[in-house]
Amino acid sequence: MKTAGIVLAGGKSLRMGEDKALLRWQGRPLIERQLRLLQSLKLDEAFIAGTHPGYPHIPDTKPFSGPLSALAHMMRRFAIDTRVVVVPVDMPLLEAPHLQRLLNHPSPLVAYRSHPLPLAFTVLPETARLFASRIEQNQLSLKGLWDAVTNAAWIEEEGPFLVNTNTPTEWQELITQQEVPV
C-alpha cells in the first residue's frame, strides 16, 4: 500500500492575524516542522495543501474553501488504496507515534476522538464520493464528516499533542507552557 502525507496550510489565518504556517517553532517555520514530521514517517510522498513556494505543495483549486475541499482536491492526486495521513499546520505538539497510530489503524477514516485533525484515510471510490457529496451539499465541517460515515473510527486518546493554535493568545500560551524558543 502506498502512503502519503498532507499538511493543511491553505487557510487565511484570520484569527491569528498572520500566516500560521510561518510562525516559528523550535527555530523553524511550522510548515517546515509539520512537513518534516510527515517525512519522518517514511511515507511515499508528502505535500503541503495550499500555495507555499519553496515547499512541495499542491495549490487549492478553490482557495480558502476549507480543509474538506482541500482534501477532496488532493485525494484525486493519489491512487486508489493509498493511505493518507493529514496534519494541520497549527499543531506543533504532534509527534510521529501519534500519526503512526492513525496510519496503522484498519478503518478507512480515523481520527482522535476529541479533534477531527489529524486524521488518516484510505483513498477509495466511496471516500471520494463522500467528500464530493458533502462539498456539494455545502457541509464542509470535518467534525460533521464523521456523522455521515458508517465505517469511520475514533482513537480514544486525549493529550496536549492535539492542541492547535488559532489566535495570538493561544500561540503565546503554548510557547509559555512549552518554554520553546521561537
Write up what this structure looks like.
By secondary structure, this protein is α/β, with parallel strands linked by helices. It has a single domain, classed as Spore Coat Polysaccharide Biosynthesis Protein SpsA, Chain A. The protein contains six helices and nine strands; from the N terminus they run βββαββαβαββααβα. The chain has helices at 30-39, 67-75, 96-104, 125-136, 142-147, 168-178, and strands at residues 3-8, 24-25, 28-29, 45-49, 57-58, 83-88, 109-112, 115-122, 152-155. The strands form two sheets. It has a seven-stranded mixed sheet, sandwiched between helices. Strands 2-3 form a two-stranded antiparallel sheet. β2 and β3 form a beta hairpin. α2 packs antiparallel against α4. The longest helix is centred in the last third of the chain and has 12 residues, at 125-136. The radius of gyration is 15 Å and the shape is globular. 36% of the residues are buried.
CATH architecture: Alpha-Beta Complex
Global Rg = 15 Å
Reported for the largest beta sheet, the result is: 7 strands, mixed
CATH topology-level name: Spore Coat Polysaccharide Biosynthesis Protein SpsA, Chain A
Tally of helical runs: 6
Order of helices and strands: EEEHEEHEHEEHHEH
Name the features.
182 residues; alpha/beta; Spore Coat Polysaccharide Biosynthesis Protein SpsA, Chain A; seven-stranded mixed sheet; two-stranded antiparallel ribbon; 6 helices; 31% helix; globular
Quick overview:
By secondary structure, the protein is α/β, with parallel strands linked by helices.
